[in-house]
Write a structure and sequence with these properties.
The chain has 185 residues and is of the alpha/beta class. It has helices spanning 8-15, 22-36, 49-61, 67-80, 89-106, 127-130, 134-145, 157-163; strands spanning 4-6, 45-48, 84-85, 149-151, 171-173.
């Protein structure tokens, strides 16, 4: 049975009834829960500690903080996603492999020379140069390391590209699309 790791946007869409994506994401959550009713082992909806950090960052830098709304959001997160997922050694290994694949494929030519040792990298490629969001890479690594489905609306084209062929692979569902929530085997 695969569990589901929800990213920051998906959780916000699920919580915020004013978002255009709210009804679709909520519908997919409901559909998944209905599918799971007949299963002996139920899939879990999980939140990464990386996502918790993104939420906390957003609350800290909000231009017009609304403590009541922020508290309601965190209450929703704790009630709907009570189990947070820590970054494990398995995720660290998956992260290292993903980042190396990104670096080897997308780093500017002057950043990587053949047979260069990692300690010779004086100016390593940035996430911007690799065309990724660093937190997306960590969350993807967590999902891959533990055979979870990553639920995201982010395209993550380069992460998807280099993750293809890895074992375990990167499974993604975009719950902003109607009727896509499913329990893969």
């Amino acid at each position: 049975m695969r569990d589901f790791l929800l990213d920051t946007q998906t959780i916000r869409y699920w919580h915020d009834s004013a978002c255009a994506q709210h009804a679709t994401v909520s519908g997919n959550v409901a559909a998944l829960r209905k599918l799971a009713m007949s299963l002996a082992i139920k899939p879990k909806l999980l939140i990464s500690v990386v996502t918790l950090g993104e939420i906390e960052f957003g609350h800290q830098v909000a231009l017009a903080p609304n403590p009541a709304a922020q508290a309601a959001y965190m209450k929703f997160v704790r009630e709907e996603l009570p189990a947070s997922w820590e970054v494990s050694e398995d995720a660290a290994r998956a992260y290292g492999e993903l980042r190396a694949r990104l670096f080897n494929k997308y780093a500017p030519g002057d950043k990587r020379k053949p047979k260069m040792l990692p300690e010779q990298l004086v100016d390593p490629a940035t996430a911007r140069e690799l065309g990724i969001q660093e937190n997306d890479l960590w969350i993807s690594a967590q999902a891959m390391a533990h055979g979870m489905v990553l639920v995201t609306n982010d395209r993550m084209e380069r992460i998807r590209d280099v993750a293809s062929g890895m074992n375990p692979g990167l499974l993604i569902q975009n719950w902003t699309q109607p009727g896509v929530a499913s329990i893969p085997s």
